[in-house]
Amino acid sequence: MTANAPGRAPARERTFLGYPRWFGTLFVVDMWERFSFYGLLAILYLYLVADPGGGGRGMADGNAAALVGIYMALVFMASLPGGWVCDRLLGPRRATLWGGVLIMCGHIALAVPVGPTLYAGLGLVVAGTGLVKPSMAAMVGRMFEGRPERREAAFSVFYVSIQVSALFAPLIAGYVAERIGWHLGFGVAAVGMAFGLVHYVLGLRGLGDVGARPSDPATEGERRQVLRRTALWGGLPGAAVAAGLLTGVLTAERVLMLVGIGVLAVPVVYCARLLRRLPRDGDDRARMGAFVWMLTASAVFWLLFAQGPALLNLFALESVRRTVADFLVPASWFQSAQPLFLLLLAPLFAALWVRLGSRVGPAVKFSGGLLFGAAAFAVMAVAALGAEAGPVSPLWLLGVYLLLVVGELAVAPVGLSLASHVAPRGLDGQVLGLFWLFAAVGAALGGQLARLVDLIGAPAYFTALGGLGLLAAIAVWAARRGLQRRLAAGR
Q1: Which of 66, 294, 311, 432 could in theory staple to 447 by disulfide, Cβ–Cβ 3.0 to 4.6 A?
Q2: How confident is the model at residue 491 (pLDDT cuts 50, 70, 90)?
Q3: In the chain, what is the greatest distance between 2 CA atoms, to the nearest angstrom?
Q4: Can you give the pTM of this predicted structure?
Q5: Are strands 323-324 and 19-20 parallel, antiparallel or unpaired?
Q6: 49 contacts: CB under 8 Å, gap ≥ 6
C-alpha cells in the first residue's frame, strides 16, 4: 500500500507520544475541544444563578439546573445528526474543521455580555460538538484500519486527553470567570478552541487523504429529502418557538420543558425504529431488548451524574468551606475532582474487570455502579443537612464525587462495551448512538427534577435521588439472571 492510499496515514517519523505527527494534530484538536466543553460546563450553572449585578443571569436554581441538563442532553444527542453530516456530506476532515469553528463562535457569543447571545452560543457549541466528536473518531479509526490493537491504544490516549482537559479546564476557566468576569471565562474557552483550529489547519497535509471525502456520499435526492425533513421537524418548530418568545406567549421556562419532552421522545422513537428492523423472534431482538432495559437503568445513573455541574456546583459555592491559607478556592474548581479521580482509578478498574473476567456479568456491574451513585447522594443528603448550620468541610463534596466516579467506571465503559457486543451486524454505530441517547434522557430528567429542590429543600431532594438510585440498583440486581441470559442469546 502506498503512503497516500485510502485509509492509511502517510509514513511519518514517530514524534508525538510514540505516534506520527498526524496523531498530534488530531490529539491537540480533541484536547482543546474538550477543554472548551468542560470549561463551559464548570461555570455555566454558576453564571446562570449569579446576581445580575455581578454579571450573572439571576436565574432560579431549578430553572438553571434544567437549562444545564438540557444542554448536556443535546450535546449527547448531537453526535447522531453530526455523524450523518460527517459520513454523507462533508467528510470527517471538513466536519472537524467546521465543527471547531462553530464551537469557537459559540464561545465568542457567550463571551459577549448581551442576554440573547446565551442561547445562540450554547446552540453553536452543541452543533459544533456534534460534528467534531464522530468525525475525530472516524479519522482515528481509518488511520488504524486493519490494526485493531493500535486503534484501541490510540483511543486510550485520546481518553486520557479528555480527562486531562477536564481536569485543567475548570481550574483555568473557573478562576477567570469567578475572579475576573463570567464572560471572560467563556472567552478563555474560545481562545483555546482557536488555538486547536490553527494547529489543525497547519497539520492538515500530514493527514494524507484520510477523511478528505465522505465515506458514503448522499445523493442529490437524499440531500433534498433531508433538507425538507430538517425544515419540517426543526425549522418550523424553531420559528414557532422564536415567535412565541418574541410575543411573550412562551417563556424560557416553558421552552425548556418543551425541549425536555423532545429529548425524552427521541430515544423512544429511535429505539422503536431500530427494533422494527430486527426479526421478531430472533436472538438479535432478544439481546437488544435486554440492552434497552440496561440502558434504562443507565439513564438513572446519568440523572444522578447530571447534578454535578448544577446543584453540586451550587453547594460548593454556598455551603462548603473554601478558604485555604487566605485563598478562596473558586467553587468551579471542584469540577476537576471527577476527572482527577477518573485518571487515578481507571487503570485499577481496567485491571479489576480483567481479573473478574466473565464471573461478573454486566448487569451486576451496572447494579454496583447504581449502588455507588445512590451512596453518593446519601452522603450528599447528610452534607446538605449539616450545611443548614453553616458551611461544611470540602471533604464531603470530594467524597460524593469519588463515589460518583466509581459508579461511572462501572456503568459507562461497561455499557459501551455491551453496545458493541449486542449490536447486530451493520448496526454498530446506531446501537452506540442509542447508548448516548439514554445518557441524554438521564441528563435532561436530572435537570428537570432539580426544580424540586426549591420545593422540598436540598436534604430531602438528595435523599430522594439516593433512593431512586437504590431502587434502580435493586431492580437490575433482581433481573440479572434473565438479563444475562438474553444478552448472551446466540453468542
Answers
A1: 66
A2: low
A3: 71
A4: 0.84
A5: unpaired
A6: 56, 57, 58, 59, 60, 61, 64, 314
Closest CA to 203 of 465, 420, 24: 24
Evaluate whether 178 touches 332 at the Cβ level (below 8 Å): yes
Q: Are strands 14-16 and 323-324 parallel, antiparallel or unpaired?
A: unpaired
Distance CA 491, CA 483 (A): 14
Give the whole-angstrom CA distance, residue 48 versus residue 60: 8
Three-state secondary structure readout of the chain: CCCCCCCECCCCCEEECCEEHHHHHHHHHHHHHHHHHHHHHHHHHHHHHCCHHHCCCCCCHHHHHHHHHHHHHHHHHHHHHHHHHHHHHHCHHHHHHHHHHHHHHHHHHHHCCCCCHHHHHHHHHHHHHHHHHHHHHHHHHHHECCCHHHHHHHHHHHHHHHHHHHHHHHHHHHHHHHHCCHHHHHHHHHHHHHHHHHHHHHCHHHHCCCCCCCCCCCCHHHHHHHHHHHHHHHHHHHHHHHHHHHHCCCCHHHHHHHHHHHHHHHHHHHHHHHHHCCCCCCHHHHHHHHHHHHHHHHHHHHHHHCCHHHHHHHHHHHHECCEECCEECCHHHHHHHHHHHHHHHHHHHHHHHHHHHHHCCHHHHHHHHHHHHHHHHHHHHHHHHHHCCCCECHHHHHHHHHHHHHHHHHHHHHHHHHHHHHCCCCCHHHHHHHHHHHHHHHHHHHHHHHHHHHHHCHHHHHHHHHHHHHHHHHHHHHCHHHHHHHHCCCC
Residue 73 and residue 126 in contact, taking contact as beta carbons nearer than 8 Å: no
Closest of 396, 343, 403, 407 to residue 166, by C-alpha? 343
Percent of the chain whose pLDDT exceeds 90: 28
Could you tell me the sign of the dihedral formed by the alpha carbons of 125, 128, 129, 130, in that order? positive
Residue 437 reports pLDDT greater than 50: yes
Q: Give the length of the chain.
A: 491
pLDDT tens digit sequence for 66-106: 889 888 888 888 888 887 788 778 888 888 899 999 999 99
pLDDT 10s digits, 270-306? 777 777 777 766 677 778 888 888 888 999 999 999 9
The Cα–Cα gap between 59 and 44 comes to: 12
Report the distance separating Cα 438 and Cα 296, nearest Å: 7
390 grid coordinates: 453553616
End-to-end, the C-alpha distance of the chain in Å comes to 35
Would you state the cell numbers that stand for residue 73, as one nine-digit string?
442532553
* All three cell numbers of 459: 436534604
d(CA 330, CA 175): 6
455: Cβ contacts below 8 Å, ≥ 6 apart:
none
